[in-house]
């Protein structure tokens, strides 16, 4: 848990806030949502969080949480933003950044998994006694040896914060742990949010070329699942048949349903949809194909 100390809340110039080493990029959809809230309700957003750092006599303000709000204020033409100013360590600033983001429901699965992994590293660095163990060692490590501050395991801490059980937290971390940064960035750009199961399946692919192919296929929308992406990869290498197109799959399902229906159901179908069938048949005869 972050132990930053709140000093004050006041307006800061946007240009005076240092923004660097962020765990996720600013998402335009997120900025648009903030702008819509401000324009429709006329309400301002919550203060952003920054850390005051003094080095060699020079004071700077480093962003902890609020990059999307800063981007929204810039788009509105504003030059300042309300900020809660804290003091503390780099580790506590990172913990606060992650805690603030994990409390939000709109994060993509890949981003939530990245934040969980980073939180694990930061939390266990701050509380080494919270690292997972087994048996009596696990019980002992759940409590600070001073006997004054209870220190729960990382997974238990996140579970209490997000309402997820510990096994779910661990699965999300395993899902993203094996991925490289370019692969994570590619998954973020996918037109469809990539679910935890698919992220986990990607992490299990040991061959680098195949894993990158699967990531790119998902990011480009060429495959809906990791399994489909792996089939595309094998087909591209001549190691398997090309996956069936959606059009071919629908055709085969229709043919199968017709064959299994039997004469009675077929006659009923034709009585209900005979006009449609006649029109489609006429189109086929005019074009001279079966497309």
TrEMBL record:
<dbReference type="GO" id="GO:0007059">
    <property type="term" value="P:chromosome segregation"/>
</dbReference>
<protein>
    <submittedName>
        <fullName>Chromosome partitioning protein, ParB family</fullName>
    </submittedName>
</protein>
<dbReference type="InterPro" id="IPR036086">
    <property type="entry name" value="ParB/Sulfiredoxin_sf"/>
</dbReference>
<dbReference type="InterPro" id="IPR050336">
    <property type="entry name" value="Chromosome_partition/occlusion"/>
</dbReference>
<dbReference type="GO" id="GO:0005694">
    <property type="term" value="C:chromosome"/>
</dbReference>
<dbReference type="Pfam" id="PF02195">
    <property type="entry name" value="ParB_N"/>
</dbReference>
<feature type="domain" description="ParB-like N-terminal">
    <location>
        <begin position="10"/>
        <end position="102"/>
    </location>
</feature>
<dbReference type="InterPro" id="IPR003115">
    <property type="entry name" value="ParB_N"/>
</dbReference>
């Amino acid at each position: 848990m972050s132990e930053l100390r709140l000093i004050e809340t006041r307006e800061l110039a946007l240009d005076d806030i240092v923004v660097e080493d962020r765990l996720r990029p600013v998402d335009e959809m997120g900025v648009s949502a903030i702008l819509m809230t401000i324009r429709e309700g006329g309400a301002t957003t919550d203060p952003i969080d920054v850390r005051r750092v003094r080095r060699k006599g020079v004071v700077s303000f480093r962003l902890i949480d609020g990059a999307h709000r800063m981007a929204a204020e810039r788009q509105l033409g504003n030059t300042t933003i309300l900020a809660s100013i804290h003091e503390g360590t780099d580790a506590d600033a990172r913990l606060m950044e992650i805690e603030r983001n994990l409390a939000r429901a709109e994060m993509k699965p890949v981003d939530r998994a990245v934040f969980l992994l980073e939180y694990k590293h930061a939390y266990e660095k701050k509380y080494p006694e919270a690292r997972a163990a087994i048996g009596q060692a696990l019980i002992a490590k759940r409590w600070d040896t001073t006997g004054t501050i209870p220190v729960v395991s990382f997974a238990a801490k996140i579970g209490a914060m997000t309402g997820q059980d510990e096994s779910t937290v661990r699965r999300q971390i395993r899902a993203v742990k094996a991925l490289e940064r370019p692969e994570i960035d590619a998954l973020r750009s996918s037109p469809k949010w990539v679910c935890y199961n698919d992220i986990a399946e990607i992490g299990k692919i040991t061959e680098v070329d195949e894993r990158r192919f699967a990531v790119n296929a998902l990011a480009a929308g060429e495959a809906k699942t990791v399994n489909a992406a792996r089939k595309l990869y094998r087909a591209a290498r001549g190691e398997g048949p090309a996956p069936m197109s959606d059009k071919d799959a629908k055709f085969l399902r229709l043919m199968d349903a017709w064959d299994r229906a039997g004469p009675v159901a077929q006659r009923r179908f034709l009585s209900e949809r005979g006009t449609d069938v006649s029109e489609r048949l006429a189109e086929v005869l005019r074009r001279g194909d079966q497309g």
